[in-house]
Amino acid sequence: MLIRKASICFPVLAALVCSLLAVPSFADSQVRIVRLSDVEGNVQIDRNTGQGYEKAFLNLPVTQGVKLRAKDEGRAEIEFENGSTLRIIPGTVIEFPELSLRDSGAKATAVKVQEGTVYLNFNGAKDDEFTLSFGREKIALTHSVHLRVAIGDTDATLAVFKGDVEVESPSGTVQVGKKQTATFDLADQDKYKLAKNLDKDPYDAWDKQQEDYHQRYLNSSYTNYSPYAYGMSDLSYYGNYFNVPGYGTMWQPYFAGAGWDPFMNGSWVWYPGFGYTWVSSYPWGWTPYRYGSWLYVPNYGWAWQPGGSRLGWNTIPRVINPPRQFIPPQAPTTSGHGTIVVGRGPVTPAGSGIVGSGNKVVIHDASAGLGIPRGSIRNLDKVSQHVKQEGSVTATVHTTPVGTSTVMSASPAVRGTSASGSSAPRTAAPASRVSSPRMSSPEIRSGPPRSSPAPHSTTPHSPPK
After folding, report:
1. Residue 122 CA to chain centroid, in angstroms?
2. Distance in angstroms (rounded) separating the CA atoms of residues 172 and 191
3. Is the per-residue pLDDT at 279 higher than 80?
4. Residues 285 and 57: beta-carbon distance below 8 Å
């Protein structure tokens, strides 16, 4: 994958005009995009560009024809518009043969499991079409269900945690209900056995942990501010909504200190038929870059204003009322299918947020949550207040292995001088999540205030053709 730093500058006025007039390419077709919402460890993506598999990273749009694979200790989650989630674990390869809109507006989704294990929590509407296939078996989903599919060398296993499904198989149709398991013999005409029990998998606890995160924070989020449900739990966890006189309801991430802007960390990624689209590196960076507008509000700083159409996507985020020195992001006009990285904010080596050899994470006043795995610090709002006072804090965390439950909270802040006040080096690749650990029970230590990064040393481009 070609990755390079962007370095071309253009006049402020021209950039602003082009940003406001940019037409969201994804709205011009029946093709959908869904979100790569969590990436841990070695996960690769084939974006159907002819380049083969490349490094996958958080918030990449997943389009029709895309393939994903998780290697080594890699895991990933895909979020669909209605809040449904698909999760993959190490040794898994999946493909998306169809992600489209019918003329009626119904969403058509087809997912093929080529090898490995997937977890699906489906919340779809009855008018939508969602097909999950594995081996020669196929499931057409019509109502809510939570299931696990695993493909081995000689058999395939379907376990249903909640709901029920009907499986079409060469050996006939089989009904699989709640807490039942169907095993298909791939070497013997797909004959199946139905068991009234569930065999546990080491990754069941991880799947449940991720689902609990969505349920906890989606329930308290402002879901009515987006046409779709995905990405909303992250907004609730990583920031807060507030009302600004004359502007209405706004959202702002925690740790958005002086000098921060929404485009400090991200990438321009090329997609067939659409050209370049902006992909944010922030863990909450999906909905605010696909819908609505970013505004610079006096005395508040940068904040996101919800809005947008169910039919319209922003490939280039909308920017309103920027500071005089700010140049809104513009898509590259260069040819080729490479990824162009923009990294101007405080990030740590590999973009993970983990500092040194120990399990410590430094949270800076202008980090906007970068490097903090979701759900890892329960009282993130209180930590944000402490960071405002000190400029940065160091959190000492304890990791838990796959398959164990985790209680996540932040201990009271302790004043000290352990946090580094120097700027961390920039990454040479898009920021991604830490490889596998989950964080719990952090010990917060304050450090000397950091000077805010320069508000503008960035990389705008001329508008797409």
Report:
1. 18
2. 9
3. yes
4. no
Per the document, the length of the chain is 465
Question: Would you state the pLDDT for residue 407?
Answer: 34
Tokens of 348: 């740590």
Q: Count CA within 13 A, CB hemisphere, residue 377.
A: 28
Buried b (16+ CB within 10 A) or exposed e, 241-257: beebeeeebbbbbbbbb
10 pLDDT more than 80: no
For residue 194, give both structure tokens: 């139905």
DSSP, residue by residue, 169-235: ETTEEEEE-TTEEEEEETTTTTEEEEESS----TTHHHHHHHHHHHHHHHTTS-GGGSSSSTTHHHH
Specify whether the backbone of 18 is left (phi greater than 0), alpha (psi in -120 to 50) or beta: alpha
- Segment 221-233 shows an average pLDDT of 72
Mean pLDDT of all residues belonging to the chain: 77
Burial zone of 108 (CB within 10 Å; 0-12 exposed, 13-18 middle, 19+ buried): middle
* pLDDT tens digits, 78-110: 999 989 999 999 999 999 999 999 988 889 999
219: Cβ contacts below 8 Å, ≥ 6 apart: none
Q: Residue 272: which pLDDT band, with cuts at 50, 70 and 90?
A: confident
Q: Distance (Å, rounded) from C-alpha 213 to C-alpha 146?
A: 16
Domains of the chain, start order: 3-22+211-343 (no CATH), 32-203 (2.60.120.1440), 349-424+434-447 (no CATH)
Asked whether the CA dihedral 406, 377, 430, 86 is positive or negative, the reply is positive
Q: Position 59: which residue type?
A: N
66 to 96, 123, 316: CA distances (angstroms): 6, 22, 21
Better-predicted residue by pLDDT, 129 or 334: 129
* % residues pLDDT > 70 (the chain): 72
Question: With contact defined as beta carbons under 8 Å apart, do 4 and 445 qualify?
Answer: no
| 15: DSSP letter | H
Say if CB 292 and CB 306 are below 8 A apart: yes
Least confident of 61-75, 108-122, 202-216, 353-367: 353-367
Task: Name residue 34's beta-bridge partners.
Answer: 62
* Structural tokens at position 441: 């029970």
pLDDT > 70? residue 354: no
Say if residues 445 and 418 touch (Cβ distance below 8 Å).
Answer: yes
Write out the two tokens for 271. 């997609």
For residues 405 and 441, the answer to whether their CB atoms sit within 8 Å is no
